[in-house]
Amino acid sequence: MIQQRITQWCRKHPTSTSTLLIKKSNRFVQYLRLFVATLTGHIPSHTVRFVLYRFVCGMDVPKDSVIHGRCRFKAPWGVHIGHNTWLGADAFLDGRSGVYIGNNVSIGDQLLIVTKEHDINSPTFEGVGGPVIIEDRAFLGSRVTILPEVRIGAGAVVASGAVVVKDVEPWTLVGGVPAKFIKRRPVLNYALDTSKPVLFQ
Hints:
The chain is α/β, with parallel strands linked by helices. Helix content is 22%, strand content 24%.
């Protein structure tokens, strides 16, 4: 409510000193949250990381999901993670255009998700991009790279080392650079057990 009123006031008075001060303050808070998110990845406690990611950094992550150590985030407030999801160590998620990860998703170490890039044909080299969506029960192997505006379908499997540049159909296995269809996967209905995360991961 208060935030909406401040936003409306700033739109009505875009050049006022107060508006410029509010914008600078917001930018400082965002940089501070990003700094905290970077440090949080090195804390060897899932509980402490969860509290800091959710309540300080603004990430949308439930208590029953696990984010392993040394993960890094760009715009962590744009990252949304579902229930019973495992995010492996050393991942990098770019939340600037939004990262949406569903329920019961298993993600290996060193995942890279990018949601913004530069248009190499633009005379101003402008930034372009869009959200990355990973649907329920997808499984991403280690060192997978996902580029902007990609949707990984429900139950899809992405093989280790793959670079995903376009949407992946549900319940299929893809792999390679760029990722291509390999075979279909049976439709399964399972819930990942995230109740016992290892302390120092």
